[in-house]
């Protein structure tokens, strides 16, 4: 409060936030995380919302931290939820005006990924975990149109075929990180899976073929995760011969391999700093699939 000429207390005016220049707003909003912008400035007024749509603020789309902050839900596997994720991703693609470089998301579909492939040639990081309706259709477009891809996570996305992995390897020479993890089908973590039983049952069974493709077409890999992969020693041999730059290898749950086989063939990986092996001594808890007697 201030005293005016007549001795009357008058309210002191604060800063007029509406008069801030776009440059100032961009400087402030760039210091916020994407989620902080969504939950704050975008809800204040139209001017602030439009500023949050600035391409420079939308080069990264990361929903993974949001997913991790909530308990897994079977509702995430519904088409209604998938439609919402698709719509969100398409909006960020539009806001980025083709400048999107990193995507970390779950439960999207071919619809939004095809949209990404057609408009975001600078894409470098793509995480699409637990996406039952992502297929070779969109992955072929990603492979062809996004040659700068260096990090790919297709864990628990079972409709992505080994042919798709082959295309990605041949068209994306800078790929150094690949995560192709499957849901556990045995062990203590089985009871913690939140996903449709029929989907878990349809896990990819071409472990050796995928391993051969990885070894042949992804020679620059430094980080490789193949949890619960069905490959045998034949597939492991292909990986170790083709991916000689590996620094990290995760073979958790790969019970078609023996400890001696893993030790023998990974010994040729001179840059390997960390390897995760199956727990061969842990009691096995098999996933029970209900029988359909109809």
Question: What report would you give on this structure?
Answer:
With 294 residues, the chain is α/β, with parallel strands linked by helices. Helix content is 37%, strand content 11%. An 8-stranded parallel beta sheet has the order 3-4-5-6-7-8-9-10. Helix 5 (79-96) runs parallel beside helix 6 (110-119) and helix 11 packs parallel to helix 12 (259-266). The protein is globular and about 70 Å long. Mean pLDDT is 85; it is low at 283-294.
What keyword list fits this structure?
11% strand; alpha/beta; globular; 12 helices; 294 residues; two-stranded antiparallel ribbon; 37% helix
Strand content: 5-15%
* Low-pLDDT stretches: 283-294
Helical stretch count?
12
Report the radius of gyration as a whole number of Å: 24 Å
Beta strands, count: 10
Please identify the oligomeric state.
single chain
| Order of neighbouring strands in the sheet with most strands | 3-4-5-6-7-8-9-10
Overall spatial form: globular
What is the arithmetic mean of pLDDT? Answer: 85
Q: What is the CA–CA distance across the termini?
A: 79 Å
Class by helix and strand content?
alpha/beta
State the major sheet. 8 strands, parallel
The string of secondary-structure elements, in order, is: EEHHHEHHEHEHEHEHHEHEHE
The residue fraction in helices comes out at: 25-40%
What topology does this entry show?
Elements: E1 2-3, E2 9-10, H1 22-29, H2 34-39, H3 46-52, E3 60-62, H4 64-68, H5 79-96, E4 102-106, H6 110-119, E5 125-129, H7 136-145, E6 151-153, H8 162-171, E7 177-179, H9 197-201, H10 207-217, E8 223-225, H11 233-242, E9 248-250, H12 259-266, E10 274-276
Parallel strand pairs: 3-4, 4-5, 5-6, 6-7, 7-8, 8-9, 9-10
Antiparallel strand pairs: 1-2
Helix pairs in contact: 5-6, 6-7, 7-8, 8-10, 10-11, 11-12
